[in-house]
Amino acid sequence: MLDAAGDQVGKVRDVVIQLRTQGRAPRVRGLVVELFARRKIFVPMPRVHAIDVNQVMIAGTVDTRVFSRREAETLVVDDLFDRTFTRDGSPVNIFDVAMRSVRTHDWEISQVAVTPAGGHNRFTSLRKKALSTIIVDWDEVPALVMMGRQSTERTVAEMQDMKPADVARELHDMSPRRRAEVAKALDDDQLADAIEELPEDEQVSLILILDPERAADILEEMDPDDAADLVQDLPDNLAERLLARMRPEDAEDVRNLLVYDDFTAGAMMTPEPVILGPDATVADALAKVRSEDITPALASMVFVCRPPLDTPSGRYLGVVHVQRLLREPPSTMVSLLLDTDLQPLATDTPVGAISRYFATYNLVVAPVVNSGRELVGAVTVDDLLDHLLPADWRGDQMDGQLAGVRRG
């Protein structure tokens, strides 16, 4: 494995996969890499930039904590190699596994190489095995399907394609012990999304059962405003410990939100809206809002500011609605399309005034600026609803008490 500079990081020793239901191929979650100090770490697939026959290229930083397998994960080399099953009436062993990229940073198992059972094991020469190897599609191998015998692994597999609110409802309905088992087995991003949908007391209880490193990872994956709300509900000493373990930039976003009074624009905003400089083009803007990491509400509007383009930005200039972007030539500069009549919210604007602002201008997202007219974030309509609805509305939703809404 090589880093972006071409320097060797270590050697790939295994591949971590996760079973999925509904006939979908097992998902590749990441690689187990042995560093030169013979310590094994986990490298998630989003960090993998390229793979060829001889090497794996990674981008960005990696977590050097010692790899620890979760319950719902399977290791290809340790768990699958040499596993025996029957094919066409004869026993065969799994010899090798192929994976393919199905979209950016998303890989899955595609094919499996098998050899006749008996006389072959992992120590048999590769040449001898290769001479008798048969390549089959992954779904022809019952052993892969049977990976999910453990109830937790099966449950996690069934949750893979659920919406966050549905995962949250499943967690809500479980016993505390079962909820802890499943939560510890879920991916960080999926657990973070689900926690955001749970009642506040259940958010706290889930964070408390996780070890501090994992809890900090979950907070990093959450939207900063939701993470700030959760941190505020934790004991002060624990909150500070988790913030100290988070990536500095993520912790800073959360700390910045904690200084604002409750039920104000500053407290409910996200510090990560779509920001462009005045010389950016329509093509640049559309490329930004096309990202799958941006919510539909945030993607409905881009904010134009002087550099720097991270919050707090340089001087706020105005907004451009995405519908306007779709009607203009790609080479047009966004600074020529500004809606300067839409006045931004101040950080201390109360929730009542924010709701009237959204209703007046028919918005799903609104800019928030500080006293120096620097953009510090954006309030989305879902942030607003979270603060307008009764405090226990998530609990009512978990219990199926929302009028006119059916569980499906």
Automatic annotation (TrEMBL):
Q: What superkingdom does the record give?
A: Bacteria
Q: Which UniProt keywords are given for this protein, alphabetically ordered?
A: CBS domain
Q: Which GO terms describe its cellular component?
A: membrane
Q: Give GO MF terms, alphabetically.
A: magnesium ion transmembrane transporter activity
Q: Which InterPro entries match?
A: CBS_dom, CBS_dom_sf, Mg_transptr_MgtE_intracell_dom, MgtE_N_sf, MgtE_transporter, PRC_barrel-like_sf, SH3_actinomycetes
Q: Where is the CBS domain?
A: 269-336, 338-398
* Pfam families, sorted: CBS (PF00571), MgtE_N (PF03448), SH3_actinomycetes (PF26205)
UniProt name for this protein: Magnesium transporter mgtE
